[in-house]
# Entry
Amino acid sequence: MSGAVEKGSTGTTKTPADFLKSIRGRPVVVKLNSGVDYRGHIMLFLEYFLSLVLGILACLDGYMNIAMEQTEEYVNGQLKNKYGDAFIRGNNVLYISTAKRTLGDGA
Amino acid sequence: MGADGNKKLSVKEGRASCGKKNYGLSLSLSLCEGVVRREEDMSSNNPSQLLPSELIDRCIGSKIWVIMKGDKELVGTLRGFDVYVNMVLEDVIEYEITSEGRRITKLDQILLNGNNIAILVPGGSPDPE
# Structure
């Protein structure tokens, strides 16, 4: 495991910590396990910053707690709610994606 | 009769002791093999001794098929992972198996939470779609 973390500094690999660094302030889509999507701008990864203070490269405890702004809530691809700021508790997060995205049904 | 019986007994004992010797020899041989194998493990990469994390590490840069708990699968290029097997994936196709069929979502780059990952298959899905 330590090998994977060490390789994070090179160009070919991108660890979760590198990914979080690269998307801060950028528009993202956060998908929860329930299937609900949240589109918005990432303000903070609380655990990530905590881990920086402690000098640990990996996400501290596997949590993905996120603070977002200009948040839009999508259920089944349809806009249901808008929030100025939102805190998403990390245990619900399925994935965090960069915002460019296409949707397709069937196949 | 009695002498014969003694002879047989002694022969049996001889065999028994011989067998013990052989056993002892084979045991020491196998112990030696064990030492040699362990030395091989230390010096080089013995394919029979592969950590799960090393297997995933070898997949970095190539396609990987992620089967989640529940009816969800993802195929994408693995960019990296951490100790929780949270994964950074690129050019991802997400398959959600629903009663109406498969819903497909294409994603540029994601950080996938490792919490719900069930199985990882190197090389991507056999399904071309």
The first helix of chain B runs from residue 2 to 43. Confidence is low (pLDDT under 50) at residues 5-40 of chain B. The first strand of chain B starts at residue 63 and ends at 68. Chain B touches chain A at residues 53-54, 56-57, 60-61, 79-84, 86-88, 92, 96, 101-116, 129 (CB under 8 Å).
